[in-house]
Amino acid sequence: MPRQIFQLKVSLSDVSPPVWRRVLVPGGYTLDRLHRVLQHAMGWQDCHLHSFDIGGQQYGEPDPDGELTLRDELDVRLDGVAAKGTRFLYTYDFGDWWEHEIVVEDVFGAEPGERYPVCVDGGRACPPEDVGGAFGYEQFLTAVSDPGHPRYAELHMWIGRPFDPWTFAPDRVTTLLRHLA
Fold it and tell me: N or C end: fewer C-beta atoms under 10 angstroms in the chain?
């Protein structure tokens, strides 16, 4: 029997127009590996804490201080907690609180010779790290798109690279994901 591949649609909550990705991920991946896939797919830098909420159960890195009750994501496989039609949440950066809705759109056998994970589609660039959540991102977009805005120069220097909120390249993400295969 071929490995099971999960087709996931990942949508960033509270951002308009939508920022989303469609990725194909082996069902045998642990939630820790899924976290790394999501980091690459969305464009995050893995600088902050994260958690999954699946069926009311919280998963993530164990909290050494015991303040967060999380099941260890290293012990849980995607195919053990999700099936076609499952919806769950992935939260990244508890300060900015980037919440992602994930939908398992399909589950199917792996194509012979195909390497996974793969990013097959998506829309819009991911917000930069530490921009201040959805509200901060909205302010950032307003400022960087208007050369007359008082924070235009400051924010362009802060981001340190060109930023086009409309651009997304699934092939570039797939290239990054090849390191996880």
Answer: N
Tokens of 103: 């939908």
Phi and psi, residue 11, nearest 5°: -120, 130
Q: What is the C-alpha separation between 37 and 178, in angstroms, rounded?
A: 10
Q: pLDDT per residue over 66-101, tens digit each?
A: 667 789 999 999 999 999 999 999 999 999 999 999
- Tell me the CATH number at 102: 3.10.290.30
Per-residue pLDDT tens over the stretch 101-142 = 999 999 999 999 999 999 999 999 999 999 999 999 999 999
- Token look-up 């076609």 returns 84
Note whether 28 and 77 are within 8 A (CB): yes
The domain in which residue 102 lies consists of 4-125+167-177
8 A C-beta contact, residue 52 and residue 59: yes
Domain contains 39: yes
Give the dihedral of Cα atoms 109, 56, 15, 7; nearest 10 deg.
Answer: 0
Provide the domain count of the chain: 1
CA distance 180 to 71: 23
Alpha carbon 53 to chain centroid distance? 14
pTM above 0.70, yes or no: yes
Q: How many CB atoms lie within 10 A of CB 29?
A: 19
Instruction: Say if residues 169 and 21 touch (Cβ distance below 8 Å).
Output: no
